[in-house]
Design goal:
Helix content is 79%, strand content 0%. By secondary structure, the chain is mainly α. The chain has one domain. The longest helix has 28 residues. The radius of gyration is 17 Å and the shape is globular. 23% of the residues are buried.
Length: 143
């Protein structure tokens, strides 16, 4: 609800677009759904280095029934899925490039994932990052 309030305030005050809070709550799911599709494309393109594979992954995440059912108006599960995908993308960027900007963005998205109400399944998936870091520390492969 805080995200909907922030978006509502931004649209009304900053952009001077009169909106109703109810409409803002309903439109959050499609906005974050599009963001998840774009983030999936970026993550897949970065990992596979093939635009065709990334396009297929983006189309699949856009039409898969399990994700579409979580993208109904007023549902905030779509925000945590977006945060999950963008966290992994930023993590891959931080590991590959070594940029502190990507690492900080990954940490912010990780915090957004927790703030969005992380589910048990997402919690199991997102623990891959600390597990990877722990393995690198044990293997003395950090720089």
């Amino acid at each position: 609800m805080a995200t909907a309030s922030l978006l509502h305030w931004t649209l009304n005050v900053v952009f001077r677009l009169p909106t109703i809070l109810r409409n803002t709550c309903v439109l959050i799911a499609p906005i974050f759904g599009v963001g998840t599709t774009v983030a999936t494309y970026l993550l897949t393109k970065d990992v596979t280095c093939r635009a065709s594979t990334a396009l297929v992954a983006a189309v699949i995440v856009a039409v898969v029934p399990a994700y579409t059912s979580r993208s109904v108006g007023g549902s905030y599960e779509v925000m945590s899925i977006f945060a999950l995908v963008i966290t992994f993308y930023m993590w891959v960027q931080a590991v590959r490039v070594g940029s502190m900007l990507h690492a900080a963005t990954c940490a912010l998205m990780y915090g957004a994932l927790v703030a969005a109400g992380i589910s048990f399944e997402n919690m199991l998936i997102i623990n891959v990052i600390p597990l990877f870091v722990a393995m690198m520390v044990v293997a003395v492969r950090y720089y």
